[in-house]
Amino acid sequence: MGLEPTISFPKLTQNTRQPSRTYRLDMETGEISEQIDGKAAIEQFITKAILTIRYHFPIYSADYGCEIQSLFGRGFHERMIRSEIVRMIQEAILYDDRIERVSDFEMSAVGDEVYISFQAETVEGIISYKGVI
């Protein structure tokens, strides 16, 4: 009889990617419609994650959303704001395992609006994002 305990280890399972099926949300009207999956679901996630103010809505975890709004009106230098916008967007969407890389950021300010575009490399292909923040 040995002094080592008998330990059994569970079989290793291979992780499989879960479907990203969700409901389409019309960002203008707030209307919810048919189910979407794949590239359309990732595009919607990116838009919602950027436009949702982090820590503001108790329905979302602290991982979800973006803090870009905290930069405006505080007297920060434009270069610092641009750098932080890139970081905050990457932080808001890269935690999702469907998104592999975010790059090629471009920004322009017109009045009170900031127009942004970037490329997101995803498991469904490249998504070109353009929007106002």
Major β-sheet annotation: 3 strands, antiparallel
Class computed from helices, strands and strand pairing: alpha+beta
How many strands?
5
Tell me the span between the first and last alpha carbons: 69 Å
CATH class division: Alpha Beta
The strands making up the biggest β-sheet line up spatially as 3-4-5
What share of the residues does DSSP label as strand, in percent? 25-35%
Mean pLDDT: 88
Q: What do you see in this structure?
A:
This protein is α+β, with helices and mostly antiparallel strands and 133 residues long. It has one domain: Nuclear Transport Factor 2, Chain: A. 23% of the residues lie in helices and 29% in strands. It is built from two helices and five strands. The protein has helices at 38-51, 78-93, and strands at residues 22-25, 32-36, 99-110, 113-122, 125-132. The strands form two sheets. It has a three-stranded antiparallel β-sheet with strand order 3-4-5, covered by helices on one side. The longest helix has 16 residues, at 78-93. The mean pLDDT is 88. This is DUF2634 domain-containing protein.
Summary of the model, kept short:
Helix content is 23%, strand content 29%. With 133 residues, it is an alpha+beta fold. Strand 1 (22-25) and strand 2 form a beta hairpin.
